[in-house]
């Protein structure tokens, strides 16, 4: 059940092309407005692109040059949105039985199938409730069962946990991990844990374009886009390779450890380093060779025994006593320092 997609939506400035291999889950990541939901809508058949072609396991979902447009209900795709959108007048069992019923199963058989799926998502005990008597998390479990009961060839999930109380998210993520295992799926998410635990591959979008894609662990370990670095919790500076460093468009030379195989003088490259490797000073530090940036503290964020100090472009993790000693607060001017040995430089 592999998906091949190429699509352009001109008025939203979205232009993408990617594949999802059989049985794999791809996470679509990217900042707000980058086009993730647009891509899902195109695949689901809710939105007609201006150009492009998509096939699912060889069947054409659309081919605009050839004039083919398969309507949403004939695509074999199951869409799970942020909100469960259950039929309010049907009880849970009949909500889930809806898919099998509409493909011709008898009432009894459809209800059997529905019960099987409700068990899969740990919601069998809710079978005779009305949607109005469900919590958000319970309703979303039922929505997952309803989508799966229709036996989709491709599952599309648009931030399925974004509307849920944070306390129910870990259990829901476990359920999704179980039911998506071995299925072909695309999940839109902002959460690094969703990417790590649910997706084999990630596709990172920005401004309607794909800026990087690859195996989840590769992208999160060696991000090449600011967005992927952000969700991986890493600092990233971009520029051109120069000597053993990266020269940013602002003229700053960031010294690091270049990956000799990919980094050649002048290529577009990134310098990537952990906030834990960054020290914070009130005076410009001298001494051992280090990269030093002047910056203004924008935000302080507690992280266990550390505090993440965010500036416009970079972040540093320091201890609480350091925050107190330096009097760090939003608006304070600081110098951030990172040793060249802590900066990985690779082509972008
Ligand atoms: N119904 C619509 N009509 C016209 N333009 C739209 C519509 N929905 C979204 N857009 C525009 O299309 C672009 C992509 O939006 P889209 O919702 O696909 O992004 P997204 O990555 O899913 O964002 P988010 O993370 O905020 O949900 C944006 O410029 C947005 O303003």
From TrEMBL:
Pfam families assigned: ABC_tran, TOBE
One example GO MF annotation: ATP hydrolysis activity
Keywords of this entry: ATP-binding, Molybdenum, Nucleotide-binding, Transport
Protein's name according to its UniProt entry: ABC transporter ATP-binding protein
Domain ABC transporter: from-to ranges: 3-232
Gene Ontology BP terms: molybdate ion transport
Limits of the Mop domain: 286-347
Keyword Protein transport annotated: no
Family matches, as InterPro entries: AAA+_ATPase, ABC_SmlMolc_Importer, ABC_transporter-like_ATP-bd, ABC_transporter-like_CS, Mo/tungstate-bd_C_term_dom, Mop_domain, P-loop_NTPase, Transp-assoc_OB_typ1
């Amino acid at each position: 059940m592999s998906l091949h997609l190429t699509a352009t939506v001109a008025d939203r400035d979205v232009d993408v092309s990617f594949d999802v291999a059989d049985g794999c889950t791809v996470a679509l990541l990217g900042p707000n407005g980058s086009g993730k939901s647009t891509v899902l809508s195109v695949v689901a058949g809710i939105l007609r692109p201006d150009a492009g072609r998509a096939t699912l396991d060889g069947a054409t979902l659309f081919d605009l040059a050839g004039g083919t447009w398969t309507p949403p209900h004939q695509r074999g795709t199951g869409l799970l949105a942020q909100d469960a959108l259950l039929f309010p007048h049907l009880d849970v069992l009949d909500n889930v039985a809806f898919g099998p019923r509409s493909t011709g199963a008898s009432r009894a058989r459809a209800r059997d199938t529905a019960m099987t799926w409700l068990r899969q998502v740990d919601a069998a005990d809710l079978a005779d409730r009305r949607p109005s008597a469900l919590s958000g998390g319970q309703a979303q479990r039922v929505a997952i069962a309803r989508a799966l009961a229709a036996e989709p060839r491709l599952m599309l999930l648009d931030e399925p946990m974004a509307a849920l109380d944070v306390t129910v998210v870990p259990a829901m993520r476990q359920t999704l991990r179980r039911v998506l295992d071995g299925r072909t799926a695309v999940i839109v998410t902002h959460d690094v844990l969703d990417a790590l635990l649910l997706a084999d591959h990630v596709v990172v979008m920005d401004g309607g374009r794909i800026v990087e894609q690859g195996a989840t662990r590769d992208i999160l370990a060696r991000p090449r886009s600011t967005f992927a670095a952000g969700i991986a919790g890493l600092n990233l500076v971009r520029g051109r390779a120069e000597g053993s460093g990266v020269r940013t468009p602002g003229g700053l030379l960031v010294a690091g450890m270049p990956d000799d195989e990919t980094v050649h003088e002048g290529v577009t490259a990134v310098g990537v380093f952990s906030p834990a490797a960054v020290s914070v000073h009130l005076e410009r530090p001298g001494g051992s060779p280090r990269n030093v940036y002047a910056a203004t503290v924008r935000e302080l964020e507690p992280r266990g025994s550390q505090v993440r100090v965010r500036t416009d472009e970079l972040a540093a993790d320091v201890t609480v006593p350091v925050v107190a000693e330096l009097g760090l607060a939003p608006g304070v001017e600081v110098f951030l320092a990172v040793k060249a040995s802590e900066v990985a430089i690779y082509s972008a």
